[in-house]
Amino acid sequence: MSTISNKEIARFLLDAELERKDVVRITSDKVPNLNVEDAYLIQEELVKLKLKEGHSIVGPKMGLTSLAKMKQMNVEEPIYGYIFDNMVVPDGGTISLSDFIHPKVEAEVAFILGKDIEGPSISGAQVLAATEYVCPALEIIDSRYENFNFTLPDVIADNASSSKVVFGNTVRKPEELDLELIGTVLSINGEIKDLGAGAAVLGHPANSVAMLANMLHRKGEKLTAGQVILTGGITGAVHLSYGDYVSAKLDGLGEVHFSVG
Length: 261
Ligand code: 0L1
Ligand code: MG
What we know:
CATH architecture: Alpha-Beta Complex
Radius of gyration: 17 Å
Strand content: 25-35%
Mean pLDDT: 96
Structural class: alpha+beta
Bound molecules: hexanedioic acid, magnesium ion
Number of domains: 1
CATH topology: Fumarylacetoacetate hydrolase, domain 2
């Protein structure tokens, strides 16, 4: 039986994040039999610690929403984590490589909710009806685990590798765009690194929010008006290096960008 508490594991992961120090995945020694349900309990402790340190939640994020990532992890369901206010970088801003362990970037669409959404059985159409705006985003993920080497419960406990996010300044009503077809190009230093369409995210980014609402319902929680939700990578995640200029262009949503110093 494990003698280490969920709170202690959460503290261990948070310390790794704050010290920019990668650690061996928790399922290799600390909690070898960790399952998905218990991993979310550790994530909850991590969220509580961050709230206690004075940070506030901007909104939840979905991860592992592409078929490629799900196959790679051998999972049938995406995962969620939380974005906090201190993770938000202004559009056009500069991040410092020394603030990270081994950051990667991916291009996403973010949903800004106008109404609460409560599962179960929420559909993509219901999500679109409850969404005030969508905007482009670049998510910077930074697993606390050595070499991004983790199992599904490990990454859930680690707040789905959340690290930073840059939201673009263009907001549009969801009905003005066909989000399934939204073409997305991720470039670094002017070189295209990956591209995709909105359908890469569970067939339609709104499906990602619907699935999130249904997953949260299992815990008796709901999505609330005003939350900004990252729906998952349309592109793959690309490693960042010192001096990079990163840009994503999303058809109809414009450009979002940042530099790495
Ligand atoms: O946002 C994401 O899709 C990341 C989920 C966690 C998996 C990873 O770190 O690659
Ligand atoms: Mg992501």
